[in-house]
Design goal:
It is a single chain. The protein is an alpha/beta fold. It has two domains: 215 residues, Rossmann fold (3-Layer(aba) Sandwich), CATH 3.40.50; 181 residues, Glucose-6-phosphate isomerase like protein, domain 1 (Rossmann fold). Helix content is 48%, strand content 12%. The chain has 18 helices and ten strands. It has a five-stranded mixed β-sheet with strand order 1-10-9-7-8, with helices on both faces. A five-stranded parallel β-sheet has the order 3-2-4-5-6, with helices on both faces. α13 links the parallel β7 and β8. The chain starts with 14 loop residues before the first strand and ends with a helix. The relative contact order is 0.16. The structure holds 5-phosphoarabinonic acid.
Length: 458
């Protein structure tokens, strides 16, 4: 039986600390950026900024009721009855990263090896075109009692559509059309798109991605909630955390954490810090950083502007990227994702022989060492010329993740408005798709196909 350490203060709120920016940013400058962030908040909340057709995420936590969570739990229960062992979640980008981030953060690192949970195993597909990955996933699918959640807002994205075709064929061959249909749930647009048409025709259960919520802002819709619930995690707690953050981020106060974060990152950007490194100190947060990278990269990186979002996991990456961060080109700033309380405990024991020389930390918790490494790194990197923002959460659980998701979404909207770009479009994503379609010989792309092949042969 795994014992979690009890942490008090479960309603603890996200903290944004800026003391690590003090050597690099004057208070007067900061106050000016806070005013701009407050204006950006008014623009966003009044729906008067660019891309305001895609602001549905802003009110999502308070508007999501029991009807949706009950419907999600009904899917989970029906698949428990069928003794489903494996659920393949098909999606890419915003239709993948939020669920992956939450499931990785909340899962026991070795739950697979230890068979710790009664919930079905979640595997992901449609986020890659790698043949080897898909073939290996199919090896698992052939062995397991399987169901599929296919997520695509447009319903036309190539990667998930290809993966779903393979999975659908297998389920239909294995179980017949009707039973296969009961093992497939589609999460897609309310009325348009190929997936919606297919789902209606085949009789799949469906969940709607609201028209006014873009992919990378959709983790608190069924896009994220359904897979997270199917993995056995508490989506009510996730939504509660997001609701609390929605209330806090609504206030035009300078202590609003979204205002603080958006203001400081824009100040740093304008003073030449073009790269932001999100650093976690727990490997479970690696995919949260991937979600964050998409959110900020796709929202801000346009019109020749935008902070480049990168990520590391410390102390692991101090042994690979630490050198560059300490002494490489000075165009970086760091944002630490600090988790105040570890939910597990490991105490370092004293050793009579002390051959490793570690008795000076005997009887301390491992997390204490992690914390000292974090503080030491922060100070060393500041000395090396790297400003530090620290974002703290109480512990890694559903409630705190709900807070983080909403906080980052709100801060991203504000930050992109301050930068002067539309946070809710992604025109640049189309370029690779056009080339790929042309090279694959999609009808309608013949001219481009010829042109690209000429360039390749040159
Ligand atoms: O943020 C975005 O809009 C993208 O990352 C999309 O989520 C991604 O391209 C997948 O799109 P779709 O859900 O339409 O398949």
């Amino acid at each position: 039986m795994i014992k979690f350490v009890k942490c008090l203060n479960l309603t603890h709120m996200i903290k944004v600390e800026l003391d690590g920016c003090r050597p690099f940013a004057g208070n007067a400058d900061y106050q000016e950026y806070v005013s701009r962030a407050r204006k950006a908040l008014m623009t966003l909340d009044s729906g008067t900024g660019a891309g305001s057709d895609f602001l549905g995420w802003n009110e999502l936590p308070s508007e999501t009721g029991k009807e949706l969570t009950d419907a999600i739990m009904a899917v989970a229960e029906s698949w428990i009855e069928k003794e489903i062992e494996l659920i393949v979640v098909v999606g890419i980008g915003g239709s993948y990263l939020g669920a992956k981030a939450a499931i990785e953060a909340l899962s026991h690192s070795f739950s697979r090896e230890m068979n710790l949970t009664a919930a079905p195993r979640i595997a992901f597909a449609g986020h890659t075109l790698s043949e080897e990955y898909m073939a290996e996933l199919m090896d698992l699918v052939y062995m397991k009692n399987t169901a599929v959640v296919v997520i695509s807002k447009s319903g036309t994205t190539t990667e998930p559509a290809v993966a779903f075709r393979l999975l659908k064929s297998h389920l239909e061959r294995q179980y017949g059309l009707d039973e296969a249909a009961s093992r497939i749930v589609a999460v897609t647009d309310a009325s348009r798109g190929a997936l919606k048409g297919l789902a209606d025709r085949m009789g799949y259960r469906t969940f709607v991605i609201p028209d006014n919520v873009g992919g990378r802002y959709s983790v608190l819709t069924p896009v994220g909630l359904l897979p997270i619930a199917l993995a056995g995690f508490d989506i009510e707690a996730l939504l509660d955390g997001a609701r609390q953050m929605q209330r806090i981020c609504d206030t035009p106060d300078e202590n609003n954490p979204a205002i603080k974060y958006a203001a400081m990152r824009n100040l740093l950007y304008d003073s030449g810090r073009k790269i932001e490194i999100l650093a976690g100190f727990n490997p479970k947060l690696a995919f949260l950083a991937e979600w964050w990278k998409q959110l900020f990269g796709e929202s801000e990186g346009k019109e020749g502007r935008g902070i480049f979002p990168a990520s590391v996991i410390f102390t692991t990456d101090l042994h690979s990227m630490g050198q560059y961060i300490q002494q490489g080109e000075r165009s970086l700033f760091e944002t630490f994702l600090n988790v105040e309380n570890s939910r597990r405990e490991e105490v370092i024991e004293p050793d009579e022989d002390n051959l490793d020389g570690l008795n000076f930390i005997a009887n301390t918790n491992l997390e204490y060492c992690n914390r000292m490494a974090q503080l030491g790194t922060k100070l060393a990197h500041i000395d090396g010329g790297v400003p530090n923002i620290t974002i703290s959460i109480d512990q890694i659980d559903e409630y705190n993740l709900g807070q983080l998701f909403y906080f980052f979404e709100k801060a991203c909207g504000l930050s992109a408005y301050m930068l002067g770009v539309n946070p809710f479009d992604q025109p640049g994503v189309e370029s690779y798709k056009k080339n790929m379609f042309a090279l694959l010989g999609k009808p309608g792309y013949e001219g481009l196909s010829e042109e690209l092949r000429r360039r390749i042969d040159e």
